[in-house]
What we know:
Number of helices: 2
Strand content: over 45%
CATH class: Mainly Beta
Radius of gyration: 21 Å
Mean pLDDT: 85
Amino acid sequence: MRFRYPILFFxxxxxxxxxxxxxxxxxxxxxVWIKTRYDLPLSATNPLSPQNSGLTESIHxxxxxNWKQIQSGITIDSGTYSTGHGDYLPYVGAFHYYYDSVGFxxxxxxxxxDSYSVSGDTLIFGAGYSGRFSSYxxxxxxxxxxVKK
Length: 149
């Protein structure tokens, strides 16, 4: 079968725009920990904060792909990272999760990931953003909040 209008065919073929993938929110910068909220147990230290724990913490994401986590002046974790955007549908009819994520690497090997949200100068890591019960920075179902330095 011969196409009668080849110019129209090529115009239609090349005028279609490819949808650009969703870009994750940038986490580059220095972030100071303000609280960690746990599901359980309810207590005077939930949420945990610098004020009720005596700990200080910061996390640093550099434009070159390196990161480090500092607690009370000591580097407790570091490596490289990459960010992405994902979605998860546990089953038809369930809540559809859309989330930004950061993958953590040590010596080139993947060690885990976290889902996150950035709103203004606030960065929140939350396992629940992606429908999970644990993650790399949050071994239990909770959230960890930082503000930009």
